[in-house]
Amino acid sequence: GSAFVIGVLQDKIRAHKLDQQVELKACFCMGECKDGVCMRVNGEDVKGVNAQNVNDVFADKILPLAQQAE
Questions:
Q1: Is the alpha carbon torsion for 40, 43, 48, 52 positive or negative?
Q2: Would you say 21 and 68 are in contact if contact means Cβ atoms under 8 Å apart?
Q3: Burial status of residue 43 (CB atoms within 10 A of its CB: 0-12, 13-18, 19 or more)
Q4: What are the tens digits of pLDDT across the range 48-68?
């Protein structure tokens, strides 16, 4: 669940040295929990994040934004 997804994201943020560009914080239910972990990336809701797709979500949604900010 969410603890695993958060752990993976924290590891990826550290591995890519994005601690200053990426803010990871928890929030309570966004109303879409039935389909998996929900997160908001730069104002966009990303739904259905799980152990199988968290690496792809990071690569597709978070990493490009962080690289633009460099």
A1: negative
A2: no
A3: exposed
A4: 999 999 999 999 999 998 877
